[in-house]
Queue: 4 jobs
Job 1
Amino acid sequence: MSLRFPDPGQRAAIAAAAKAAGVSMQEYILSAAYERATAVESAFLEHFRASAARSGDAFAAEPGTTDPSTEQRAAEQQARRDLERDGRDHAA
């Protein structure tokens, strides 16, 4: 694994963090990447399960009554805002 950093300050910060954690820079970087990937996966699965539950409820409704209620629309809008907020948090 090649550890080239165009910013010497970034390299120094990562080296200091790795040293404080008692691991090599490679291990520190790989661990951080793994933690981030699993956090993204967990968020995706959480939102997927919530979406699947809402979809299941909609399809379980009687024919002709699939128009969402005011409460369901509000819940969907809140879920969308939560998802957009989580996307911004993970993009940082």
Job 2
Amino acid sequence: MHSWLKFGVVAVAAFGIIGCSSGNFLVYKDSKHFYVTSTGPELRRILCDSGDMAKIAKDSQLPDALQKDLKDGICNSNKVKERLLATLEGMTKEQRTALKTAFQQNGYDINVVANC
């Protein structure tokens, strides 16, 4: 196996482990992918400015306080990654599944990396 191919396999495996080892996960839409804890402008434009995060939170049918924490944690201009991670990690498996399902219902792929 070529060394660059070995590196690619290791990188993909590590990427998957990192993404699955916490409450953090990747979302993909409009040829862009990012972790929900990302602070980049693309996340803000695609998820927050579009109003998608408000729809996703509502569609998740999670408790109102948790919906607010998620919307604020993801879309706040003063985003604190550690606080959002704590919210995500504090959710039950069922709650995380409901959130991910709501993302999918709103046109997002979960834990998929775009092939460029």
Job 3
Amino acid sequence: MADDDERPSMSRTTYTLVVREGAGNEGIIGEVRADGTIEESTRLTYGDFGLTAIRDDWLPNERRTEVEADVRTIRLQTERSGDGFSFRLLGDGETIAEQRISDDEWRVAAVR
């Protein structure tokens, strides 16, 4: 007989946090993938933050972080702080993966 505080068995899943620039250099897309499907996604448009991409013929590389977890819920959280964007993958409310994109790295600047 199981103890009352013992959690039911959950299977471990490999989640991939992908952060990439969207078509047209207009913003950043964050996705959480598992088993070949997109579980969560969000799009941040530079213009909503008074920013624009400043570059010619260059695109930032997609960033990927893989993490294995046995969680009941996942959620993608985004935040603009200082000179960059943070993308956090939350599993059962706790951060299990994170990517931070700075304005300088992705050649993004404030529109004046």
Job 4
Amino acid sequence: MSEKGISNVKFADRSASFEYNPYLISKEEITEVIKRLNIEFSDVPKKMGIIKRWLLKMAKENSENFGNQGIDCCNVNAENKKS
């Protein structure tokens, strides 16, 4: 808590969570503080919700079907008329 920008630290069941002001201290700076204290840790991402999984799946399918270019309605209509 002596680091400027960290407002709260919670420890529970072999985990720690930090509340911090990103304008005063970055996630990378917090990581460096933890390393200086010789504390081993792993950054565990939060679980994705059903909507986020659905959106990521839809984005992947769109990328596979249309590539990485933007969709142009004129090109899509022209391709549909050819088939």
